[in-house]
Amino acid sequence: MDFKESSFKIIKNHNCPFYQNGDEFKVVGRSISLMGKPTCLTLMSDVMAALVNCQGIQTIIKSAPREHVFNCSGYQSGCPGTIRLKYLRTATPAADPIAKIDKELSDISQELNNFSIFKTLSDHEVKEIVSYFKVQELKKGQIILRKGDRGENLFIILSGEVEIVGDYGIAIAKLGRGEIFGEMSLLTGNPVSTKVKVVEDTKTMCMSANYFKMILSRFSPLQMYFTRLLARRLAKSNIERSKQISSGMSGNLSEITATELLQALNMTQKTGVLKLNFPKGEARISLRDGHIVHAEFREITGEKAFFEIMKQKRGNFKFKPGLPPNEMNASKIADFMYLMMEAMNRIDEESHQPEAS
Asked: What is the pLDDT of residues 269-283, one digit of tens each?
């Protein structure tokens, strides 16, 4: 059975271990998109049952309501939580499997191929990715992001100009057509580190964090693009700090996060030992030419130790250039970008887990 294009939104959450209020899911034809969220088989079964029931009624009774509210059957399967969802039938999907694109974006879809973020993608891939964006118009003087905000959206500028403002109101950079902002917080999982202000009336493409994670996992060229973009942004905003760190700087993680610290060392291809002192114990990360060749935290070593280190938010650090001979010839424990992305995913998943009672 092919289903019409439908959406489901969580409107109430009671101790669900996977999802939060406001999370949305889409069904187009026979395809279910979880927007980068974990898969719950119980929820999938409930969604399919709702579709069969609701769309069957709508086929017979043309005036049947287009909305339907229901609870998942989590308790029946032994799950400690449950969620309440609202189902909304939208329309019969178009012949093209790509979701409907905002008319304004559709009109300029060919032109978007010239934007640096889309240059390595096919026309079909660009159209699919663009379908997850919405057009947003911003007025001169408007503050889009504030330091300390939770990163919730990725922005691509279609026209106009915005300004990146650092501490003490100092302008760091201006961004124009085809440039991107909002990605730092989405990639690192950290709060927004600078303010973004509209310099002149601006039009942007805006994508939610859930969609961003989904397309990043699906399109490998985008992973490479954002890896390079992240490195360039860090180079501009933290160049002096990077120089100090690479020469043996010590400091506190309240001044620079572990993510930014390692990105800086990777970007500058440094070789040395990063020692970290956390409330839960001491940790050590060894880098050769910016790649991680060893990690240890308490009794743990390797990838597992690295992921545990990245979860720590408070502590001091010290970087010392140079490695012992046995680590100069050691293999890297994994690809650097994989380690960073996997650490971010694990932190994100844990933040959605219910607290132990």
From this structure: 889 999 999 999 999
